[in-house]
Amino acid sequence: MSPKHIEDMYDAVIVGAGAAGLSAALAVLRSAQIARLRDEGVDPRILVISKLQPLRSHTGSAEGGIAASLGNVEQDEWRWHYYDTVKGGDWLVDQDAAALLAQYAPETVINLERDGVAFSRTGDGHIAQRRFGGHTRDFGAEPVRRAAYAADRVGHQILHTLWQQCVGAGVEFAEEWHVTDLVLDSDGERVAGVVAFDTHKGVTHAVHARNVLLATGGAGRLFHTTSNSWDLTGDGMALALTAGLQLEDIEFVQFHPTGLAHTGILLSEAARAEGGVLRNADGEAFMERYAPGHADLAARDVVSRSIRAEIDAGRGVADPKDPDGPRDCVWLDMTGIDADHMEAVLPQVSETIRKYAGLDPVHDWVPVKPTAHYTMGGIPIGTDGVVYRWDGEERHPVEGLFAAGECSCVSVHGANRLGGNSLLDACLFGTQAGRTLADRIADAPVAVAGIDADMTSDADDPVDTAAAARRDDIAALLAGPADADDPDADDNPYRLAADLGAVMEQALAVRCDAPSIARAADELRDELRPRAERLRAHESAPTFNQELTAIWEVRHLVDLAGVMLAASDARHESRGSLCRTDFPERDDERFLAHSMTAAGEEPLWQPVHIVDMPPQERSY
Ligand SMILES: Cc1cc2nc3c(=O)[nH]c(=O)nc-3n(C[C@H](O)[C@H](O)[C@H](O)COP(=O)(O)OP(=O)(O)OC[C@H]3O[C@@H](n4cnc5c(N)ncnc54)[C@H](O)[C@@H]3O)c2cc1C
């Protein structure tokens, strides 16, 4: 069944059905403004489009927890959370946004609980909380238990709960529709809609909308070793770039220290929070040497770099499955955790180790290596969720365009995100964007205000024009390789994504320098991008044609890689997750600034919002 107003006009289209998109949809439908409209007999037209069935969104893989200073197990305060967030982001954090994040975190978690999230409990029935790296009491004095959790399946709980609430609230979904274009009006100042491809029917739709919210998740698939699911190809970010917008701080990618060798699958930080210890080839618990005090629970970039340093110093270990292979892992030793306790609080971690490594964490040490985990940068938004452009002097909002969740950058994570802060970001700022959306919808609902003559069914209509161009593109892709003898004829998007991932990993993973960036940029320009442009599908049916969508996805990755390399190249310092071996120091004088990079351009720099916490030296 097609959505109700597909040939018509929507009040809002939300692209993405993870924590951010679903939180936004719920916030719209639950707002007082929309309730009032409904009382007046006006039904707002809101559509959530997702390339996956919503319950397959990556939010469902989040394991460890969601951060909030509930103070249920020990004293905690939002100001400490705020401080940790700013410090963890290596001071590249907009402090007004981070203060909101910390302040409204308890309310966000309690609302999730009321909606049905089955958090783990303390003995007296409160939401249980555990330690997570970088979260401290009393402005860095000692670790604090701040992450609310549901065993090690908190994302699964949150995703299912939000989805059920959305279904209950009557949210309209277009499932397994792939958004291929973000369309702005001709002067690029206002959103006009999106183009979406229904993968079941093989039909392309021009979807007109007064408001569009992008909540398409991260871009871990840029790297060969990643904890991210296959769908995280940075689509929303690439769509924004193609529409002429910038990405903010896109050079900052968090590598989670404990990806299971050689799958990249994440072993939650909870494994270390519960007592797991990293060891080198000599069996030494080396983190105490790099981060006295915090040791294995130091910030993720510190742990990832320490692992790399051990490997570079020849103290790495090989994956036992490939004993003659590279010694590019270290051990995660969980044998000190009581077996029953491990089963109770880390069921997912132990199952992953048993299933994919064939090891038993109760008795065996487990090989791990850093894995691309989280994209700190993204589509620039204000705290109201509205996307903006930066012209070198000030922000210019794009009317009706919103973003939330991992594809966005409200700049609460700065140069490095703390564990538990991204589910919080997605739920909290997703809700915030939904509230702003509700205000805009209530001001002029389509059903009352009618449809602007200049926005639909017009020969120059930008959404219809973009949809027509996309139909031509699809026809060309489905026509197959022009010449079957062409040596590229059997190239495919999966092989290209693997090659791109290897190039990006070599160039940027955990550390980089000017030559590594330049080599990757050359390969991208001379080899990978031309290959992406030449790709054609090998099957001509438009329905359920996964190669077709994979071609769009790898093209998105290629676009994103170009901008990520440009931003990494321009930042001549090391900060947070970005470790430039040729510029090892943080340079606040020149680079206490957000990079704002459009496709094919040098970044512009936007000052960081410092409110009440001047940058401090790193101390861990
Ligand atoms: C293994 C793992 C563990 C994690 N653990 C934690 C944790 O313990 N705590 C924490 O705070 N964070 C954790 N994170 C991070 C956190 O889960 C994510 O940042 C967050 O869930 C992102 O939510 P989102 O709504 O932005 O995106 P997602 O949940 O990734 O959803 C993206 C949505 O966009 C849709 N979409 C994408 N492209 C298109 C397109 N072209 N057309 C249509 N639809 C599209 C998809 O269908 C999907 O519905 C973890 C991440 C991973 C990978």
Automatic annotation (TrEMBL):
Fumarate reductase/succinate dehydrogenase flavoprotein-like C-terminal domain ranges (all copies): 499-620
Instruction: Write down the EC number.
Output: 1.3.5.1
**Entry-linked InterPro entries:** FAD-dep_OxRdtase_2_FAD-bd (IPR003953), FAD/NAD-bd_sf (IPR036188), FRD_SDH_FAD_BS (IPR003952), Fum_R/Succ_DH_flav-like_C_sf (IPR037099), Fum_Rdtase/Succ_DH_flav-like_C (IPR015939), SdhA/FrdA/AprA (IPR030664), Succ_DH/fumarate_Rdtase_cat_sf (IPR027477), Succ_Dhase_FrdA_Gneg (IPR014006)
Q: Which UniProt key words apply to this protein? A: Electron transport, FAD, Flavoprotein, Membrane, Oxidoreductase, Transmembrane, Transmembrane helix, Transport
Mention one GO biological process in which this protein takes part, according to its record: electron transport chain
Q: Does the keyword Transmembrane helix apply?
A: yes
User: According to its record, how does it sit in the membrane?
Assistant: Peripheral membrane protein
- Keyword Transmembrane appears in the UniProt entry: yes
- Cofactor requirements of the protein: FAD
Q: Which part of the chain is the FAD-dependent oxidoreductase 2 FAD-binding domain? A: 11-423
Primary site of residence: membrane
Q: Which GO terms describe its molecular function?
A: electron transfer activity; flavin adenine dinucleotide binding; steroid dehydrogenase activity, acting on the CH-CH group of donors; succinate dehydrogenase (quinone) activity
- Which Pfam families does this entry report, sorted A to Z? FAD_binding_2, Succ_DH_flav_C
For this record, an example GO cellular component is: plasma membrane
Q: Which residues form the active site?
A: R300 (proton acceptor)
Q: Where does this polypeptide localize?
A: Membrane
Q: Which reaction does it catalyse?
A: a quinone + succinate = fumarate + a quinol
Q: Which residues cross the membrane?
A: 12-29
Q: So which domain of life are we looking at?
A: Bacteria
The family line of this record is: Belongs to the FAD-dependent oxidoreductase 2 family. FRD/SDH subfamily.
Protein name in the entry: succinate dehydrogenase
Q: Which organism is it from?
A: Bifidobacterium samirii
Recall the taxonomic lineage recorded for the source organism: Bacteria, Bacillati, Actinomycetota, Actinomycetes, Bifidobacteriales
